[in-house]
Each structure stands twice: as structure tokens, then as C-alpha cells.
Design brief:
This protein is of the alpha+beta class. The chain folds into two domains: 163 residues, FAD/NAD(P)-binding domain (3-Layer(bba) Sandwich), CATH 3.50.50.60; 151 residues, D-Amino Acid Oxidase, Chain A, domain 2, CATH 3.30.9. Helices cover 28% and strands 28% of the residues. The protein contains nine helices and 20 strands. The strands form four sheets. Strands 1, 2, 9, 10, 11, 12, 19 and 20 form an eight-stranded mixed sheet that branches. The protein is elongated, with a radius of gyration of 21 Å. Bound molecules: flavin-adenine dinucleotide (FAD). Flavin-adenine dinucleotide binds next to helix 1, strand 10, strand 18 and helix 9. InterPro entries: FAD-dep_OxRdtase (IPR006076), FAD/NAD-bd_sf (IPR036188).
């Protein structure tokens, strides 16, 4: 049986960042994914926003890894010429009650170490974005956008330069710890079953993390958090983009999403979304009947929207730990301290801001490995 020092299951932004980080300490790292290409699931179905770290409760992994990850990500993009731009974002309040909610958000951001937010009144807001309707706004200058595909490609290249191997079309099936290593079973592209021995096992399988955890011998079932699928749809806009910044409403109260916002890619192509819809099965359908809800949400801040230029786009699915109606849940990184098994790290619930946080999450996983 082949023997390696670590297997990372899942080649999304987080798994790739982990492979890159741990390959600075471990020699043979293998990253496997069930798809032939890296980043084929949630990491390529999102808003590509570098979040500032405004929304998440203080002292949570989400808050800490988002703020730390944002700084690491800007530095990384700068250093390796990954297309990105600190375009800035406006969170718009439409009435005094929403200004109150923005004030709470501002305090939250300050506690998280986001100290650069600026208040704009209606007149200043018009100067920033003449086409926008709004009573007041919070401006976040450190929110940005990036080319997530080039980011993931760069992570993979750096990991490969350190000896990591990426094996696509390879599905994790089962693992058990035997004597001093994990015996990991996987399905090869031709359907045959392979086995590999590995000192470390990292479960970074995103929407598949819980299913993988269920196939690891010795895990206490109650330590596998239930997974809730929450789909977010996007609509693209084929007309002229009037916005210089990202435009967000005040976030939804239950925090299932940040509200239907206006984002744009680095070419300036405008898109709106994501909304939030809990679903039972992995299904990326975007029902064009949702258009009416999108029009209502967008017209609140942009009355001049040309409805005919709004088209059903794509969707992404959040791997939530938050049941419908429940309060928001934090990211989980589990190591032997929690589950009692040696040399196993598992990540659960890596929804937004997981792309922003990816380098910081990888740093934490690396620290767990390096401290052994
Ligand atoms: C609608 C939406 C919008 C978002 N917007 C943003 C944003 O603007 N900014 C931000 O910071 N974050 C955003 N996020 C969150 C971000 O996209 C995710 O947190 C991040 O991409 C998660 O990366 P990951 O590597 O954990 O998961 P994934 O990208 O899902 O990768 C997991 C990989 O594991 C593989 N896998 C699963 N099971 C197996 C198995 N049994 N064997 C082998 N491989 C397996 C999958 O094929 C997949 O490639 C958004 C998410 C959604 C859904």
C-alpha cells in the first residue's frame, strides 16, 4: 500500500489552502476530489467577495478567520498577481429603524477589529452612487472582489511546488486508524477501489464533510453536526452597470444570508443575489419564477432597474449547520481534542465567509498539525 504523510479530502478553496499550508511541514501530501477539476462545487458558486468581517459575532471562528483571512488574502493576491480589487461596499439603510440595525452592525464590526467603516448620510450616499436610493449607509472600504479561479489555481500550484499531488475523480469512501496511520479507501476514476496509508487525514469536503465523517471508524455520531442545505440563487444583469461599489441591504434578521446584494466581477459584469432557500437535495436549479422577488428586492435600492435585462443565472449551496428558523452557527474545526482520534482534522459548516477565511482556516489546521 502506498504511504503518504497527509490526505486532504476536498479540493475547494479551503482544502487547497490547507494542502498548500501543510505541505510546508509535511512531505507527501495528497489532495483528492470526486470531480476532475478543483473548485467544482461551492468554491466556484459564490459571490467572490472578500468580506471585511462585519457580520459575525465576536470571538467566533467566522469573525476571527474572516478578518485574519481578509488580510492574508489581500497580501497573497498582491504578491502573486491574482486579480482582485478592494472595490468597497455600501450597506444601505432605507429608514431610521434600519439605521439602528446598521449601528448595531457597526458595533459588531468594531468588536471584530473592523475599524475602517464610515457613515454616509443620504446626500453623501448620492455622491458615492448617484443611482441609489437610501436613507443612510455604512461604507466598508476593505471589502473587495477577487478572481476565485485564479486564486485556487495559484494555491494548487504552490502546493504542487511543495510536493503535493492532486488526484481528481477520486471519491473518499472510508477510513480507519490502524496502529499508527489511517487506511483510507477511495474510488478511482475507473470505479475500482484503492487504499492508501496516511499519517494525517483532513476532511475538508464541504457539502460532503458530514457524509465523509460518517465513514470514519471511531467517530462518535453526535460529534457530526447535522447538515442543512441552503441554496442561494443569482440573477445576472445584461444592461449597463451603474455601480462603482458592491451594494448590500441590511442583512436578514435570521442571518441565513446577507440579503440580495449587487455584486460584480472584475470585468464589471453586474449580478444580484444570493437569496436563501433551504432544500432537501443537492440541486442547483435556478427557477426563473424567482425573478419577481429579485425585482422587489433590487428596486428598493435601485428603482431604475430594467427588469428585462435581469436573467436567471447560477446558484450555490451553503453547507449550513443552522436549521431553518435557528440562530446562526459558527464554523467547526474538529481535532483529536474533540473527537479523540489521532491525526484527524475535520471542517464542518464552511459557508460564507469561507472563501475569505480560507487562508486563515488553513493556518489553523496547519497549527494543529505542527503542534504534534
Ligand atoms: C451562494 C454562496 C455565496 C457565497 N459567497 C461568498 C463570498 O462572496 N465570499 C466568501 O468569502 N465566501 C462566500 N461563500 C462561501 C464560500 O464559497 C465557501 O465557504 C467556500 O467556497 C468553501 O470552500 P470548501 O473548500 O470548504 O468547500 P467546496 O468548495 O465545496 O469544496 C469541497 C470539495 O470536496 C469535494 N468532496 C466532497 N465529498 C467528497 C468525497 N466523498 N470524496 C472526494 N471529494 C469530495 C467536493 O467535490 C468539493 O470540490 C459563499 C457560498 C455560497 C453558497
Amino acid at each position: 500500500m502506498d504511504k503518504v504523510e497527509a490526505i486532504v479530502v476536498g479540493a475547494g478553496a479551503v482544502g487547497l489552502a490547507i494542502a498548500r499550508a501543510i505541505s510546508s511541514t509535511l512531505n507527501d501530501v495528497v489532495i483528492i476530489d470526486q470531480h476532475s477539476q478543483f473548485g467544482s462545487e461551492t468554491s466556484s458558486r459564490n459571490s467572490e467577495v472578500i468580506h471585511a468581517g462585519i457580520y459575525y459575532p465576536n470571538n467566533t471562528l467566522k469573525a476571527e478567520t474572516c478578518v485574519r483571512g481578509k488580510h492574508l488574502l489581500y497580501d497573497y493576491c498582491q504578491q502573486f498577481n491574482i486579480p482582485h480589487r478592494a472595490i468597497g461596499k455600501l450597506i444601505i439603510a432605507f429608514n431610521p429603524a434600519e439605521v439602528q440595525q446598521l449601528e448595531t452592525l457597526h458595533q459588531q464590526a468594531l468588536q471584530n477589529g473592523v475599524t475602517d467603516l464610515q457613515w454616509l448620510d443620504a446626500k453623501q450616499l448620492k455622491k458615492y452612487e448617484p443611482d441609489l436610493n437610501g436613507h443612510a449607509a455604512l461604507f466598508s472600504p476593505s471589502t473587495g472582489i477577487l478572481d476565485s479561479h485564479t486564486y485556487m489555481q495559484t494555491l494548487l500550484t504552490h502546493a504542487q511546488q511543495r510536493g503535493t499531488m492532486f488526484i481528481g475523480q477520486t471519491r473518499f469512501l472510508h477510513a480507519s486508524f490502524q496502529v499508527n496511520h489511517w487506511v483510507v479507501k477511495f474510488q478511482n476514476p475507473d470505479g475500482s477501489i484503492g487504499e492508501i496509508a496516511s499519517q494525517w487525514l483532513i476532511n475538508s469536503a464541504g457539502l460532503g464533510a458530514q457524509a465523509c465523517a460518517q465513514q470514519i471508524d471511531g467517530i462518535t455520531p453526535s460529534l457530526i453536526p447535522p447538515l442543512y442545505l441552503c441554496r442561494g440563487h443569482y440573477f445576472t444583469y445584461s444592461g449597463r452597470n451603474p455601480f462603482k461599489h458592491l451594494i448590500y441591504p441590511v442583512p436578514e434578521k435570521n442571518q441565513t444570508g446577507l440579503g440580495i446584494h449587487s455584486t460584480q466581477d472584475l470585468a464589471g459584469q453586474l449580478r444580484f443575489g444570493p437569496d436563501s432557500q433551504y432544500i432537501e437535495d443537492l440541486d442547483y436549479e435556478v427557477n426563473s419564477a424567482l425573478k419577481a422577488d429579485f425585482i422587489d428586492a433590487i428596486k428598493r435600492y435601485w428603482p431604475k432597474l430594467d427588469e428585462d435585462k435581469l436573467h436567471a443565472g447560477y446558484s450555490g449551496i451553503r453547507p449550513k449547520l443552522q436549521a431553518p428558523g435557528d440562530s446562526s452557527k459558527d464554523f467547526i474545526i474538529q481535532s483529536s481534542r474533540e473527537h479523540g482520534l489521532p491525526n484527524l482534522v475535520q471542517l464542518f459548516g464552511i459557508e460564507s465567509p469561507g472563501l475569505t477565511a480560507s487562508l486563515a482556516l488553513a493556518e489553523r489546521v496547519h497549527a494543529l498539525i505542527a503542534s504534534k
